[in-house]
Amino acid sequence: MPFMPVKFTLQKRVKLAQGLWMLYWVSVIMGILIFSLGIFFKIELRKRSELMDNNESHVVPNLLILVGLLSCGANAFGGKVCHDSLDPMKFSKWKSMLKPYLLMCCSFNVLLLVTALLCFLMQFAVYLTLAEGLKNSIKFYKDTDTPGRCFMKRTLDMTQIEFRCCGNNNFRDWFEVQWISNRYLDMSNDEVKDRVLSNVEGKYLMDSVPFSCCNPGSPRPCIQHHLTNNSAHYDYDHRIEELNIWTRGCREALFSYYSSMMNSIGVLVIVTIFLESADMAGLKYLSTALETMADPENPECESEGWLLEKGVKETFSEGLAKLKLLGKKNQVEEGGDAQETAT
Predict the structure, then answer these.
(1) Concatenated DSSP letters for 144-193?
(2) Sequence-ordered list of residues with C-beta below 8 angstroms from that of 35, at least 6 positions apart, any chain
(3) Contacts for 34 with CB less than 8 Å, ≥ 6 apart
(4) For the chain, give me the number of helices (H) and strands (E)?
(5) What is the predicted pLDDT for the residue at 16?
(6) What is the reported pTM?
(7) What residue ranges do the domains of the chain occupy?
(8) Quick check: 195 and 205 in contact, CB under 8 A?
(9) Distance between CA 212 and CA 158 in Å, rounded?
(10) pLDDT in tens, 322-336
(11) What angle do CA 19, 98, 106 make, to 5 degrees?
């Protein structure tokens, strides 16, 4: 007995075909959107590649671009089939292709599910890449004359301004590295010399941050030097006063940006899976309703459509039996090849 059978009149078949045609083109639009978001995500990763030590993974954006293109092609084909289904002559040429097409759609849905899962699971990898990359970026901030690091200062400054953040975890990360190049330090100055010599690694460390950490919304002129020295500034206490620099770390800010993007894309892909499933179910009903017409030459006659030709249990058992038979055939072929090799 067929699974979920439905009786169809001519009017119902026409409405189903028209509704499916519209639904397929909505899926095409979703495919274009996924493709566009994949390209946008890839560009956003490339833009800040330096801040990730060029170790960022492009698996998710590449998959999004692929599934976006496949979605456009597969759904445009489905829309064409629905459009031609109202004409028996035109629909007859698509009959032989419907079964492989529906199987391909099932595989495509699995690929969409994998893509959606990766959108959520790969966020941890992005977090780790940002943590390590930003740590090294701050370390190489001063190397404006070193090949390969010439634009690190500009990239990091623009990131701190754009995302309103400072340092990796917070602004104190700048206290632990020498972020001013030696070429801009007057080594004949006793204060500079003492500061360098007092450090075990010979670094010029100070409780200061770059200008890009300044919050322009603060009413007080930016205090970016001697942040922990209360006596260096009038009416100032760094322990209780709200600092006029960004206190949020760039790792948190960038991760929040990328994770929100990946979450949104993941939800969009899940919605697309439901759309694709509805398309598949509708096309199955339409194709079986057209095939079971008592008199194909009389479009007014009734027909019956279904999702599965047999029940779920019977269909599952039949599929499992086919897989077992295929496995046995492969074993027999392998055994025959082994005997031929032995002889």
Answers:
(1) TTSTT-TTHHHHHHHHHHHHT--SSSSGGGGGGS--S-GGGS-TTSHHHH
(2) 64, 65, 68, 69, 71, 72
(3) 64, 67, 68, 71, 265, 268, 269, 272
(4) 9, 2
(5) 83
(6) 0.82
(7) 3-128+252-308
(8) yes
(9) 7
(10) 666 666 666 656 655
(11) 85
